[in-house]
Specification:
The chain is an alpha+beta fold. The protein has helices spanning 21-35, 51-58, 76-84, 93-100, 102-111, 124-129, 214-218, 233-249, 285-292, 297-309; strands spanning 9-14, 41-46, 62-65, 120-123, 137-141, 151-153, 174-179, 184-193, 196-207, 223-226, 254-263, 268-275. It has a 5-stranded antiparallel beta sheet. Strand 8 and strand 9 (196-207) form a beta hairpin. Helix 2 runs parallel beside helix 3 (76-84). It is globular and about 60 Å long. The termini are close together.
């Protein structure tokens, strides 16, 4: 960092154009509030198509990217920030684009020796017409996050999920279909320090109602988080190490979060995906894990800005 932290002008990017806009606004406001009084100036930026012009006028020293989903998390906004030569938080252009594409990121993770689900990409209309794999299975958009557009087709289902074939489907013509993995829903936050990535802990997530969907993630009381997760020591350690391996393999920097399923009957740990810009809302997993290891919310946000300001 070339300037004292207290002298920085930080632009907090939030909102954006994706289906995760409301979550991003919550993350951004929380982070902006945490920075108030720590830095010289905080600019709250609701990122739209005019983002380049807005940032050119603001001239921030660093951007804290709190955007989620398409455009803000897939390398597009990162490219704008690179062009404007504004240091920014979280992963760069390539890692952001790669990680947002579930199919391509699974290929990279598999090559790195990380256990990932089977399945693949299918035309959404075909998925709406017939079972492309044997139930139970999960349907998800290939390039969305926060469980937006995700469906669980249960064992014994007579019909596929017809919603994915609807005219108003807004999440791409191909969808990812993966076998449903029973068991525990786990998450691990990773902080990409200069000495190497450091996994914080493992959280066991239990949705209050059924599937861990958008509401379970973000509605107050939608899920119960237990940390550290009650797991066999070898599985706990494997989740930490696999999260760090995934962070490195995908080229992530700053903060990331790895999501797992652990089938405790068959003792199988599978990494579902990596999120390069995890939520920072009051119900989010990363600040909760950071607090567990002794890093308060303000400290975490400060670290994210300091990390963004470091020369690459």
């Amino acid at each position: 960092m070339t300037r004292p932290f207290a002298d920085l002008h930080v632009a907090v990017l939030m909102g954006g154009l994706s289906a995760e806009r409301e979550v991003s606004l919550s993350s951004g406001e929380q982070c902006a509030d945490a920075l108030e009084g720590q830095v010289a100036r905080v600019s709250r930026v609701d990122a739209g198509r005019d983002l380049a012009a807005v940032l050119t006028e603001l001239k921030p020293d660093v951007a804290l990217n709190c955007l989620h989903g398409a455009w803000g998390e897939d390398g597009c906004v990162q490219g704008i920030l690179e062009t404007l030569q504004i240091p920014y938080s979280h992963s760069g252009v390539l890692a952001s684009a790669l990680t947002m594409d579930k199919d391509k990121s699974k290929s990279v993770l598999r090559a790195a020796g990380v256990e990932v689900p089977g399945g693949g990409l299918y035309d959404r209309h075909e998925v709406a017409r017939r079972h492309v794999i044997e139930p139970p299975y999960v349907i998800k958009p290939n390039a969305e996050g926060s469980s937006v557009g995700v469906f669980l087709v249960p064992e014994g289902a007579n019909r596929p999920q017809t919603e994915v074939g609807a005219p108003d489907w807004a999440y791409g013509e191909q969808v990812m279909v993966e076998p449903y993995i029973r068991g525990k829903e786990l998450a691990v936050a990773v902080i990409g320090e200069m000495t190497g990535p450091r996994a914080l802990t493992v959280t066991d997530i239990t949705p209050v109602k059924g599937f861990y969907d958008y509401e379970a993630k973000y509605a107050p009381g939608g899920s119960v988080h237990k940390l550290p997760a009650d797991l066999p020591p070898a599985v706990f350690e494997a989740a930490l190490r696999e999260s760090e391996r995934a962070h490195v393999a995908l080229g992530c920097r700053g903060v990331s979060r790895a999501d797992f399923r652990y089938d405790d009957l068959n003792d199988v740990l599978v990494l579902l995906e990596v999120n390069t810009q995890p939520g920072m809302t009051p119900t989010s997993l990363v600040p909760e894990q950071a607090a567990f290891v002794g890093m308060g919310y303000k400290d975490l946000v400060r670290w994210m800005v300091e990390d963004a300001s470091c020369p690459r």
